[in-house]
């Protein structure tokens, strides 16, 4: 497997373009199953995860064609299979979200359960409970979900017991073609939810309230096709903003939606960065000769601090002047990057969902191992500020969610390269 080699100690200066959002693109690809017309997605990231899903969609009867750097055409005039097998779904949990669109379009679906996850259990119970509210019959057998709605789906009322982005998205897709009105309460409010609603509405759906805790959906008979631009990736934006704060220098992030990260900007300012918000660009500046300040942080559902930026923020705090407390309130077992950061000289003590990070003057480059997508990029950030060379192994995790990471960091002065695996 490939690894990333980083030479630390270099400030970052220049522009970094932000790609389309992975977490949104995957759901838009699955939602394209809801129409028999051609869908074109622009601002599409090129990632391992999007290619995994493209392979599955191809099995179901969808033609997926890439054009240039960021355009993808999707067309499923006929559903040729309603089975999503284990070998496909196990590679990426988001594949499970084809269940609702298959059910809405074809009246049945057989989808493998996604299994466990390195960052803690993320059960699909909420997904299935929501879909059953729309009149689907659901059976579990031999690790598969068998869902049936031979007479079509009908509108229903879903009150989520806790906020779930994936279940909210899945319910929205399923209800788009259901007969009558559906109401989703205690719905997730993330920008990706709004992006999915905008996507579906642009093709004829009737969805109101996305971005609030109550979403109303009036089912329609069919959706059309068309062209839609994927929202910029707020997690990639935040990752590079944190990297720039850690390494110092002056970096401008372009093609962003700065309003999607209101929970991050004050924390980076408290850490010592100057943040310039300019609509579709953000500039991050910090004197590389001074250490960042320590800042406490707790993850929360949107509009709170994103769990997908927790590992990156911890990497920043490892070199801060003082001690910080980081609380993870979304996923259990999401501090697996802490031991790897400690290998580089960090001082992190984990107790349950809380980590105490006592900043050190400098980290030391070392061979480290990525454990999941966001943990892997936190090790890259640590490598940018460490003395000497850092080797991040198992970077296939990075390729799942970050497009051209080495190229983007290299263009702002980082010493970073990929070493092919043997």
What does this structure look like?
The longest helix has 14 residues, at 234-247. The strands form 6 sheets. The protein has a 4-stranded mixed β-sheet with strand order 22-23-1-24. It contains 14 helices and 24 strands. 30% of the residues lie in helices and 26% in strands. Helix 1 (22-31) runs parallel beside helix 2 (48-60), helix 5 (125-132) runs parallel beside helix 6 and helix 8 packs parallel to helix 10 (310-317). The chain is α/β, with parallel strands linked by helices. The protein is elongated, with a radius of gyration of 22 Å. It has helices at residues 22-31, 48-60, 86-89, 99-106, 125-132, 165-175, 191-202, 234-247, 265-270, 310-317, 337-343, 373-385, 396-401, 405-410, and strands spanning 3-7, 12-17, 39-42, 63-67, 71-75, 83-84, 108-112, 137-141, 144-148, 157-159, 181-185, 206-208, 214-218, 226-229, 249-254, 274-277, 281-286, 297-298, 323-327, 347-351, 354-358, 367-369, 389-393, 415-419.
């Amino acid at each position: 497997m490939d690894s990333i080699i980083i030479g630390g100690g270099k400030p970052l200066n220049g522009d970094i373009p932000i790609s389309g959002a992975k977490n949104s693109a995957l759901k838009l690809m699955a939602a394209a199953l809801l129409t028999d017309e051609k869908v074109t997605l622009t601002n599409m990231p090129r990632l391992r995860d999007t290619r995994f899903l493209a392979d599955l969609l191809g099995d179901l009867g969808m033609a997926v064609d890439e054009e240039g750097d960021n355009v993808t055409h999707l067309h499923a005039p006929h559903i040729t299979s309603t089975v999503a097998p284990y070998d496909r779904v196990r590679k990426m949990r988001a594949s499970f979200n084809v269940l609702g669109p298959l059910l809405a379009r074809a009246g049945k679906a057989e989808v493998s359960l996604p299994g466990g996850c390195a960052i803690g259990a993320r059960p699909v119970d909420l997904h299935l409970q929501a879909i059953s509210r729309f009149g689907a019959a659901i059976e579990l057998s031999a690790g598969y979900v068998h869902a049936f709605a031979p007479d079509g789906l009908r509108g229903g009322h879903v009150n989520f017991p806790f906020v779930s982005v994936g279940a909210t998205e899945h319910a929205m897709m399923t209800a788009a073609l259901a007969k009558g009105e559906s109401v989703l309460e205690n719905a997730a409010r993330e920008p990706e939810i709004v992006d999915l609603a905008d996507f579906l509405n642009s093709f004829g759906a009737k969805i109101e309230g996305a971005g609030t805790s109550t979403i109303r959906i009036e089912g329609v008979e069919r959706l059309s096709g068309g062209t839609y631009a994927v929202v910029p990736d707020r997690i990639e934006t935040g990752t590079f903003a944190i990297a720039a704060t850690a390494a110092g220098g002056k970096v401008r992030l372009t093609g962003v939606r700065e309003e999607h990260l209101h929970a991050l900007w004050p924390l980076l300012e408290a850490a010592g960065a100057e943040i310039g918000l300019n609509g579709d660009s953000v500039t991050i500046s910090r004197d590389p000769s001074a250490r960042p300040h320590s800042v406490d942080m707790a993850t929360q559902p949107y509009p709170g601090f994103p769990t997908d930026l927790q590992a990156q923020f911890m990497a920043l705090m490892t070199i801060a002047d003082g001690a910080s407390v980081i609380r993870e309130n979304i996923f259990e077992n999401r501090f697996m990057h802490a031991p790897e950061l400690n290998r580089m000289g960090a001082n992190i003590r984990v107790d349950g969902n809380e980590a105490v990070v006592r900043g050190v003057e400098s980290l030391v480059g070392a061979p480290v191992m990525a454990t999941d997508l966001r943990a892997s990029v936190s090790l890259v950030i640590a490598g940018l500020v460490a003395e000497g060379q850092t080797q991040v192994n198992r970077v296939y995790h990075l390729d799942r969610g970050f497009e051209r990471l080495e190229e983007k960091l290299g263009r702002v002065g980082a010493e970073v390269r990929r070493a092919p695996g043997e």
